[in-house]
Structure formats: C-alpha cells, structure tokens
C-alpha cells in the first residue's frame, strides 16, 4: 500500500503501475475539503515513490466523481478571502496530478462532473466506459470550473468546443466526447480498468508519447490572434443571446479563457481563480447554489416518504383523456407503469393517444428512443370507454374538467368500481381536496396530485394532503410521482394549494396595472426581460387559458374573499366574456397563428386595447415589478406561516419547477432575502393603499426585527 486515506487509497497493481482509487465512505465520490487534502497527500506520496512507471485513476463506486461538495459552498463563499485561498490551493492539487513524472490515465465510469471531469482533464489519457457522463456543469450553479477546467479543456479540445461546453454546462455521452477529443477511448464497463492499464503501460514503454500529450496543457493556447479574436467574439455573442444579462457565469467563463489564452498554465489558472472568486460573491451564484441545496432537500424528503409506502403502484388509471390526461398517461407508461386511459368520449381518447404518440415521436426524431421502444410505451396505454377496465388498478388519477360537481360525481363513481385498496387522486389545480373528499366514503385513500402542463416537460407534482388523507396514501403517491420522474412536494389543502394560490395574487397585481391603463405588452417585457420570467403575466394567462383563469378567480375569491375578491368587471372577466380564451382559441391578450414558415406566432391585438380601455399609461420597470411581485411574495409567506408548505426551500423549488420562477433569483424566499426583509417591508408598505395583497404579515415583521432568515439551516 502506497497510501491509505478515508476516501482515497493508492497501491501498486502491476509492475511499477499504481492505482489511485477514489473510495469515499458515502454513496458517491466528491471533492470536499478533506478529500482534496487526501488527494494532495496521495499525489505527493506518488511523486516520491521509487520505481513508479504509471498511474491510473479509478473509482470504487458505480460512478467516478460527481464534483465538489456543494454543501460546503455557501459557508465557504461567505468569506471572500477564505474563498481565494481555498480555490488557489485546491486548483493546484490538480497541477500535482498533471505534474507526476509518469504517464497517467483516468478510468471513468458513470458521472465525471465538475471536479471529477477536471481530475480526468489533468490526466494524460482519459478512458471511459459506455455508462460515462462527462462535463463541466458549474454554470448551472452560477460558477465556472475552479480546478483548472477553463485552462485545460480549451487546450485539449480547442477553444470553440470548450467554450460551448463550459458556457452551456452540457454533459457529454461517450461517443460525443470521443468525437471532440475529450476522451481517448470508449470501452465496455467490464473492460474499463484493463483498457486504462493497457494505455498507461503502452505510454510507460514508450509506445505512446505521453509527454507530447501533456505539453499543450502547460503552454499558451496554440492559435493565432485572428483565430482567437473570431472565436471569442462568436462565443460572447452566443452567451449574450442564450444566457443574457442575468447569468454572469457564462460571460465570466469566456473572459477567463480569453485572459488565459496567451499564457502558460500558472497565469491561465490565476485568471480562472480570479473569475471564480468574483462569481462566488454574486446574487446569481448564491441563488443557484441555493436551488441545488433546496432541490436536494426536496428529493431527500420525497425519498424518505417513498420508503414509508407499504405498496408499490404497478398499474394506474387516468380518468379524462385529452391533452392533460394523455400527458399523464404517457408519463406513467414511459416510466414503466402501465396505464388505463378512461373517458366517456372516443374523440377524447383519440386525442389522448395522439398526444402520447406525438411526444414519443419527437423522442424518436431526436434519437433518444427507437420505434420498438415507442411501440412498447404506446401498447402499455389502454384507451377505453368502459368503467370495468379500471378494476384492479393500484391508483386512479382523476383528470376531468375543473368543476367541483363533475369531479365529485366521477370520484364517487370510481370508488364503487375500483378495489378497496386502490388509491384515488384528483389532478385538480385549485379545488379544495377536503371539499372533493366529501364525495367519498373512505377519504383516507384520497389526495390531490396536481400535474403541470405540459406534463412531460414540467418537473413538479404537488401532492395535496387532505384533512383525512392517510400517511400511507401520501407515501404511495409520492413514490408514484417519483417513479414517474417528477419532483414531488407535499402541501396541505387550501384553495389553489401552493403554486396556484401564490400565482393569483401575482396575476391580480398585473390586472391592477392593466386596469390603470398600463400596456400589458410593456408589463410582459418588463417581467420577462428585467425580472426574468420565461413569459410575462399576459402571455402566461393566455397559455393557461383565460376561461380557466376566470374560473379560478371564483375559487380563490371563495377561499380568500378579502384578499382575492373577484372583479366581475376586471381584465380577465372582460376577456372571458368576449370569448377571448387565450391560445386555445387563438385569441386572448394576444392573437395567435402561424408565421410564413408554419411556426406558432404571437401577434399584437389592437382590439384588446379598446376592450380593456388601455390608455398606455407609462410606469417605471421597478414599479411594475413591485406591483406584481409583492403580492406573490406576501402570499408565499402566508403559506409558510399557515403550514401549507413545510419550508421556504420547498416553496422556492415549487415555484421554480411549477411556474418557471427565474433561477438566477432562486425562488420567492431567496428573492425576498436578496432584497432584504427590512427593505421589502418598506417597499410593500409604500403600496399598502392598494389593498390587502400588499400588506405584509406580522410574522414577516417579527422575522425582520429579530434579524432571522427564512433560509437558515
């Protein structure tokens, strides 16, 4: 044994060839501070080992190295001087690997991401098996690679490819990685270690020139000034178009590569270190790292809840076909749970199957599925008009029209048909689960399971616990949602639950602006370009459906009459009365059609200005944002205080995954804390005359006075 640590061991495996194996005590290998120290010690020991001829890096886990330990980041980044010292010291550990006086090869299985990829880049050769996924996804955390990735990758695969991978955070499958020269060989998993050994031995014997392979990583980029100027200009334009102004990491990555391009390793690494440290102090980084942490919390809770389930969902039924029902049926079948799709109309069943077939067809077009797999998925969806077809299923997902009386009738009918152990859920978006539960004899096996449209793209599912819902029911439904590939968040019952409850004050704030004469297209531009929503409130309402939104205002007004009263002469009601229903009939705030190339198009609708009495009143962007966002944040705080959602982190993830809350802002609570509780209260108080939606809670005031954080712990 050459070296033995808690996470790393090194020993000779053949004559003069050593194996440095990552074998962390946890489920995966990652670079926490302790592991980096062990890595440095192991490499120092290897550098001083006599008769050493070569080194292979391997993993004792099913995956190579998933990257740095992100749980350490927020604490570490709080002190900028500490961060400078840490990243400089940590990145030089990878220099130690690169400077070993013998040839090196990484044997990569499973994920080699972030620091895992950078460890492989510091080796002379990279051999991966067919399960490998290799990449530098740091921009998704608001960062750039910090262990030499921006310096080594351009020198290995060229600056064009390197900047594309780093600025997008794209992961690479083996064949793609081989095509661009990111890896040197792809082999079957059972041949991985043998292939890495063979390559190192060939290099040690002089059959491969490992020194020539290493040398470019130690020198300036080999490209003339004209080539580099064009390359960086193109990369900057692409980053501006794709990342925009709200995400500084892609821009910083390009600058780090550009600043280091004309320098050898040490100066290039210094440029990377400086850019990395600068990003750690940005709101975007704090928000995106916070998202990662919150996502881990949510998934951990779902995993723990799922383990409590005493039964597994092996066969499902969806009541109500069409777009939503077809989407749910597709998702269940695609993830391996056969499903019966029941409706009372054949044309609805046809539409549901068409929806599933369309989604699968696109996967085939993109090469992510073959026709055989597509046929298997479609054959596991059984469309039917017969009630008896749902007998024997483990779960029934009701997805009929959003009407409490219709839903109650359908749910009662199903309870008489399915077995006594079958779980019954409603895919309602706003209607109280306790209200619907009154139609069932056994409400303990009933809860809400709110999918978001389009089902196959939206990652969130709200699991709504009713007053009489059993823990076993919740556990089984969370397990089913997770099995479907969704992020499940359990919330307690109230009108609108969590996501739609906090959405409607936001839309009410928007409606108030329009009623004062502000151009809704101007509001959309501000909320998209300045705040960062994927679509502004007018466009979002068109996508949801004006009639759906109008009906939901009735539900919300019934639940919260003083805070969310329905205005029969309001913006949404007027559009609904004029049968401008949004995208579903091509007329809403905007008109919808197709352009000359047959692509969907959104067009200006002059007639809406007359209908709504818009006077083109101008308003500053910060006032538009405040008018829309204060009601949403206040409602999120109320949901937390009332126990509708268990934590601020879960609320942040719910809005990120359910509504597309801008990731660089991190979610409503991260946004609130970035502003500062005191400043937010002062801002909200300045709009208090507009109504109860703008009134902050006593709990929020108490938090501010005590200097507490919603995101602590």
UniProtKB/TrEMBL annotation:
It comes from Pseudidiomarina indica. This is enoyl-CoA hydratase. GO terms for molecular function: 3-hydroxybutyryl-CoA epimerase activity; delta(3)-delta(2)-enoyl-CoA isomerase activity; enoyl-CoA hydratase activity; long-chain (3S)-3-hydroxyacyl-CoA dehydrogenase (NAD+) activity; NAD+ binding. It catalyses: a (3S)-3-hydroxyacyl-CoA + NAD(+) = a 3-oxoacyl-CoA + NADH + H(+). The keyword Cytoplasm does not apply. InterPro entries: 3-OHacyl-CoA_DH_CS, 3-OHacyl-CoA_DH_NAD-bd, 3HC_DH_C, 6-PGluconate_DH-like_C_sf, ClpP/crotonase-like_dom_sf, Enoyl-CoA_hydra/iso, FA_oxidation_alpha_subunit, FadB. Residues 316-494 form the 3-hydroxyacyl-CoA dehydrogenase NAD binding domain. The lineage of its organism: Bacteria, Pseudomonadati, Pseudomonadota, Gammaproteobacteria, Alteromonadales. Keywords: Fatty acid metabolism, Isomerase, Lipid degradation, Lipid metabolism, Lyase, Multifunctional enzyme, NAD, Oxidoreductase.
């Amino acid at each position: 044994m050459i070296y033995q640590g808690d996470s790393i061991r090194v020993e000779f495996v053949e004559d003069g060839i050593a194996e440095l194996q990552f074998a962390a005590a946890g489920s995966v290998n990652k670079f926490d501070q302790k592991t980096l120290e062990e890595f440095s010690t192991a490499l120092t020991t290897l550098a001083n080992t006599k008769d050493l001829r070569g080194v292979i890096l391997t993993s004792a886990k099913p995956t190579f190295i998933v990257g740095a330990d992100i749980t350490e980041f927020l604490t570490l980044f709080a002190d900028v001087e500490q961060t400078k010292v840490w990243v400089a010291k940590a990145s030089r550990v990878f220099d130690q690997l690169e400077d070993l006086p013998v040839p090196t090869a990484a044997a990569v299985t499973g994920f080699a991401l972030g620091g895992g990829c950078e460890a492989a880049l510091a080796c002379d050769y990279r051999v991966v098996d067919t399960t490998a996924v290799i990449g530098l996804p740091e921009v998704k955390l608001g960062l750039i690679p910090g262990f030499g990735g921006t310096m080594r990758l351009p020198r290995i695969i060229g600056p064009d490819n390197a900047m594309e991978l780093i600025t997008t955070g794209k992961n690479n499958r083996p064949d793609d990685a081989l095509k661009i020269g990111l890896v040197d060989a792809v082999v079957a998993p059972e041949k991985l270690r043998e292939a890495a050994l063979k390559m190192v031995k060939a290099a040690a014997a002089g059959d491969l020139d490992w020194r020539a392979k290493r040398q470019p990583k130690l020198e300036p980029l080999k490209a003339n000034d004209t080539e580099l100027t064009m390359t960086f200009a193109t990369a900057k334009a692409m980053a501006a178009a794709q990342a925009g102004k709200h995400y500084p990491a892609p821009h910083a990555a390009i600058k780090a590569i550009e600043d280091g391009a004309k320098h050898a390793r040490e100066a290039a690494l210094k440029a990377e270190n400086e850019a990395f440290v600068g990003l750690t102090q940005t709101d975007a980084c704090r928000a995106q790292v916070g998202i990662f942490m919150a996502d881990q919390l949510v998934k951990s809770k779902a995993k723990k809840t799922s383990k409590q389930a005493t039964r597994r969902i092996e066969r499902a039924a969806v009541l109500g076909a069409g777009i939503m029902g077809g989407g749910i049926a597709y998702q269940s079948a695609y993830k391996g749970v056969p499903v019966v799709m029941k409706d009372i109309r054949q044309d609805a069943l046809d539409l549901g199957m068409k929806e599933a077939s369309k989604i699968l067809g696109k996967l085939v077009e993109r090469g992510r599925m073959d026709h055989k797999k597509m046929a298997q998925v479609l054959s596991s969806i059984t469309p039917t008009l017969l009630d008896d077809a749902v007998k024997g299923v483990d779960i029934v997902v009701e997805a009929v029209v959003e009407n409490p009386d219709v839903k109650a009738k359908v749910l009662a009918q199903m309870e008489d048909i399915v077995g006594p152990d079958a779980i019954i859920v409603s895919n309602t978006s706003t209607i109280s689960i306790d209200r619907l539960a009154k139609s069932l004899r056994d409400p303990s096996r009933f809860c809400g399971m709110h999918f978001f449209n389009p089902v196959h793209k939206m990652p969130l599912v709200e699991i709504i616990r009713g007053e009489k819902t059993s823990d076993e029911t919740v556990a089984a439904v969370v397990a089913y949602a997770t099995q479907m590939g969704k992020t499940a968040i359990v919330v307690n019952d109230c009108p609108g639950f969590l996501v739609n409850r906090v959405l409607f004050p936001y839309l009410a704030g928007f409606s108030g602006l329009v009623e004062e004469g502000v151009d809704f297209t101007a509001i959309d531009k501000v909320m998209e370009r300045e705040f960062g929503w994927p679509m502004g409130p007018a466009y979002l309402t068109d996508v949801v459906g004006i009639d759906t939104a109008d009906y939901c205002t009735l539900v919300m007004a019934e639940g919260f009459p003083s805070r969310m009263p329905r205005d029969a002469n309001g913006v949404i009601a007027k559009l609904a009365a004029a049968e401008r229903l949004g995208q579903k009939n091509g007329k809403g705030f905007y008109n919808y059609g197709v352009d000359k190339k047959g692509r969907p198009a959104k067009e200006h609708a002059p007639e809406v200005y007359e209908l709504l009495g818009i006077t083109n009143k101008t308003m500053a962007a910060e006032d538009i944002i405040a008018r829309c966002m204060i009601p949403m944040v206040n409602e999120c705080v109320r949901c937390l205080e009332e126990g509708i959602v268990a934590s601020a982190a879960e609320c942040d993830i719910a809005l990120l995954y359910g509504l597309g809350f801008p990731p660089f802002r991190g979610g409503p609570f991260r946004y609130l804390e970035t502003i500062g509780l005191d400043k937010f209260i002062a801002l909200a108080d300045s709009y208090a005359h507009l109504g109860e939606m703008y009134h902050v809670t006593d709990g929020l005031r108490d938090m501010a006075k005590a200097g507490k954080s919603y995101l602590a712990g």
